[in-house]
C-alpha cells in the first residue's frame, strides 16, 4: 500500500489506492486464508443473520454511464442462482469480535497508516498535502479500523457503524473466519435493487422522495462543508434508513463495499450471463454503492449500478464490506 492514486480511481472522490506488488498480494492473501475458522455455533449464528435473495433474471448496469471509466454500462441480462446476503455491512462490533478471536491484523495495521478524510483531523493534520487530485485525503500514521481517525481515536459510540479502513484482504479474512464469502458483483447489484427493475436507487428513481433522505451522502459544498442534512457527517449506523424490498440497509451511500470480483469490463459476449464471477485476471477489485463522501457536484456514484475499482490493499475511512453465503 502506498499513497499513489490507482488508475481505476482517477476522478473518484471516494477512492484512493495503489498498485499492490505481487509480493504483497501473496503475503496478504496468505494471511487472509490462514485465519482459523470460528466455532461451528458462531458460524451458524452469523449465517442465520443473512437474508435470502431469490434466484432469477435481472437487468444489471445502466443504459449510459456518467463515468465511462467505471464500466457500469450497458445494461445486460443476468441470471443468478438463489443466495444469501447480509442486511447490514459488517459493523465495528462484528469486526472487533473477529479480531479478538483470531488476532488478525489488517493491511492498515501492517503498513502503519491509512487514508482519513481531512475534515475529521485537527488543524495541523489538515494542512498536510493530500494525493494529487484527491487533496481531501490524508495519509495518517496509526489510522486503522479501531482508530479510524488515527492515534487517540476509537470507535466508542460507533459500535453499530460499519467497520472502515478495511482492505479487500481484510474482508476476505473475516469471511474465512465466519465461513461466509464476499458477494459477487452481480449478487450485490441484484440485492441492492431490492426487486425493482432499472431504477437508480434501492427505493426508486427519486433521490429524496417527498424530500426525505434515504441514504448517507454529502450535502453542502464538497469537500469543505458537509451540512449533514441527512443526519450524518461521517458514517451512519449499519441499520440507518429504511431497508429496500429485500430487507437490506444502506446499499447506497454510507461506505463503499468490496465484492469478490476483479475490476474490468462487463462480459457482453453472452446473454444471459449465468452466475457471473467477473474477470479471471487483474489486480484491482470492485467496490460498490458509494459512500458518505459522494456528492452530485463531483462523484455521484451513489446509485445501485455505481461501481469503481481499486487494488485489494486499498484502505480508506469510507471503505467496508458486507458478507454473503449460499443456501443449505
Walk me through the structure:
- This protein is α+β, with helices and mostly antiparallel strands and 328 residues long.
- Helix content is 19%, strand content 16%.
- It has helices spanning 22-33, 40-48, 92-102, 107-111, 123-126, 168-178, 185-193, and strands at residues 51-53, 56-60, 76-80, 83-85, 113-117, 137-141, 220-221, 225-226, 256-262, 273-274, 285-288, 307-310, 319-321, 324-325.
- It has a four-stranded mixed beta sheet, covered by helices on one side. It has a three-stranded antiparallel beta sheet with strand order 1-4-14, with helices on one face.
- Helix 1 (22-33) packs parallel to helix 6.
- The protein is globular.
- The model is unreliable at 3-11 (pLDDT under 50).
Helix content: 10-25%
Overall 3D geometry? globular
Q: Based on helices, strands and strand pairing, what is the structural class?
A: alpha+beta
Strand segment tally: 14
N-to-C CA distance:
38 Å
Estimate what percentage of residues fall within beta strands: 15-25%
- Rounded average pLDDT: 93
Low-confidence stretches: 3-11
Number of helices: 7
Please give the order of strands in the largest beta sheet. 12-11-9-13
Rounded to an integer in angstroms, the radius of gyration calculated over CA atoms is 18 Å
Identify the quaternary structure here. Answer: single chain
Amino acid at each position: 500500500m502506498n499513497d499513489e492514486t490507482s488508475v481505476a480511481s482517477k476522478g473518484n472522490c471516494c477512492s484512493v489506492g495503489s498498485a499492490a506488488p505481487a509480493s504483497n498480494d501473496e503475503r496478504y492473501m496468505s494471511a487472509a486464508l490462514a485465519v482459523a475458522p470460528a466455532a461451528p455455533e458462531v458460524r451458524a449464528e452469523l449465517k442465520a443473520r443473512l437474508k435470502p435473495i431469490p434466484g432469477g433474471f435481472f437487468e444489471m448496469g445502466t443504459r449510459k454511464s456518467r463515468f465511462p471509466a467505471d464500466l457500469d454500462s450497458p445494461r445486460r441480462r443476468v441470471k443468478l442462482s438463489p443466495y444469501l446476503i447480509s442486511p447490514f455491512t459488517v459493523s465495528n462490533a462484528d469486526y472487533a469480535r473477529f479480531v479478538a478471536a483470531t488476532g488478525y491484523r489488517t493491511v492498515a495495521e501492517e503498513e502503519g497508516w491509512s487514508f482519513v478524510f481531512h475534515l475529521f483531523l485537527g488543524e495541523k493534520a489538515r494542512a498536510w498535502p493530500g494525493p494529487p487530485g484527491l487533496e481531501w485525503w490524508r495519509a495518517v500514521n496509526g489510522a486503522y479500523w479501531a482508530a479510524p481517525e488515527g492515534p487517540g481515536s476509537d470507535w466508542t459510540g460507533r459500535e453499530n457503524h460499519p467497520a472502515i479502513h478495511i482492505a479487500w484482504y481484510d474482508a476476505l479474512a473475516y469471511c474465512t473466519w465466519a465461513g461466509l464469502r464476499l458477494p459477487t458483483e452481480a449478487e450485490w447489484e441484484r440485492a441492492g435493487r431490492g426487486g425493482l427493475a432499472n431504477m437508480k436507487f434501492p427505493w426508486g428513481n427519486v433521490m429524496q422522495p417527498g424530500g426525505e433522505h434515504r441514504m448517507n451522502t454529502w450535502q453542502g459544498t464538497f469537500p469543505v462543508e458537509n451540512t449533514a442534512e441527512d443526519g450524518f457527517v461521517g458514517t451512519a449506523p449499519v441499520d440507518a434508513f429504511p431497508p429496500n424490498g429485500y430487507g437490506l440497509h444502506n446499499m447506497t451511500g454510507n461506505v463503499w463495499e468490496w465484492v469478490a470480483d476483479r475490476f474490468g469490463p462487463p462480459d457482453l459476449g453472452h446473454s444471459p450471463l449465468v452466475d457471473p464471477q467477473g474477470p479471471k485476471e487483474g489486480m484491482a477489485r470492485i467496490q460498490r454503492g458509494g459512500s458518505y463522501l459522494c456528492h452530485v457536484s463531483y462523484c455521484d456514484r451513489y446509485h445501485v449500478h455505481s461501481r469503481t475499482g481499486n487494488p485489494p490493499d486499498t484502505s480508506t475511512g469510507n471503505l467496508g464490506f458486507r458478507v454473503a453465503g449460499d443456501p443449505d
